Amino acid sequence: MKNRLFTPLAFAALLSLAHAGTVSDSQLNYVANYRDRQQQPNLPAPEAQLLNTDAEPGLTDGFSSLFNGHDLTGWVRKGGAHRFEIQDGVLVGTCVPGSPNAFLCTEQEFTDFIFTCEMKWEVDSNSGIMFRARSKTDDKGKVTVYGPQCEMEGIENKRGWSGGIYGEKAGGWFYPLWLEAHEEVRQALKADHWNRITIQAEGDTVKTWVNGIPAAHWNNAEYRKGFFGLQVHAGKQGKVCWRNIKLKELK
After folding, report:
1. What is the pLDDT of residues 122-164, one digit of tens each?
2. Selected residue with higher pLDDT from 2 and 36
3. Strands, DSSP E only, in the chain?
4. CA–CA separation, 42 vs 86, rounded Å?
5. Residue 112 in contact with residue 250, Cβ under 8 Å?
6. CB-hemisphere CA count at 13 Å for 237?
7. For residue range 26-68, what is the model confidence (pLDDT) as tens digits?
């Protein structure tokens, strides 16, 4: 694997005791696809990736619900025409074939926080949770949501990057889960079960967990404040459910 020049941030990452090491053999093809072919300019050098070695934070004290279980008060759809509705107290997103990506977004923006929710797929599809996200509207009125997303790629995708951080309309992968150290979290997603996702953002540091297993550790100074957005991805099908959507703001 060829060496690449490191940014100051990447060099600082190398000096950390919690730095990463080796790409898994099962993931080498993704290095070729994303790094060597330079399909995604955001992609970090694997040897510069920090590891999340922290236990998942406590998820009880100080949390408030972002979803009342009855209606979409405090939320607004942005992007495509996929449906978001409440069924038996659960928030359900259903793919409308032919529509671009859609996001159910909080009206409020947040800076430093611990966010957690549970997800389950009734019909498999790509999804994710935008955080510190932004949107822009072009001169034709088209709204584009962009920024960091905690990837939740679905049950059938064998790559195993759920919990990684993707730059939605922002250049591609910020933190892929392709290292040997990510093997456990690549196996964390459970088919036909609720899966817990936790995102902690404090200052420039973002960490994620999937079902309590550490996933990403990403440092970034560009995206420091924004909204949350629950994604229904473009495609032929998909039905994603969310519940227990909670937030603790960090002062």
Report:
1. 999 999 999 999 999 999 999 999 999 999 999 998 899 999 9
2. 36
3. 64-65, 75-79, 83-87, 90-94, 102-106, 113-123, 127-137, 143-152, 165-168, 172-175, 195-202, 205-210, 213-219, 227-232, 239-249
4. 36
5. yes
6. 4
7. 998 888 888 776 778 788 988 899 999 999 999 999 999 999 9
Q: Are 100 and 80 in contact (CB under 8 A)?
A: yes
Task: Record the pTM.
Answer: 0.90
Q: Which residue has the tokens 């159910």?
A: 104
Hey, CA dihedral for 182, 19, 42, 38, is it positive or negative? Answer: negative
Query: Residue 117: how many CB atoms within 10 A of its CB?
Result: 24
Q: What is the predicted pLDDT for the residue at 20?
A: 53
How many CB atoms sit inside 10 A of residue 211's CB? 20
- Asked if residue 242 lies in contact with residue 91, where contact means CB atoms within 8 angstroms, the answer is yes
Using DSSP's 3-state secondary structure scheme, residue 81 falls into coil
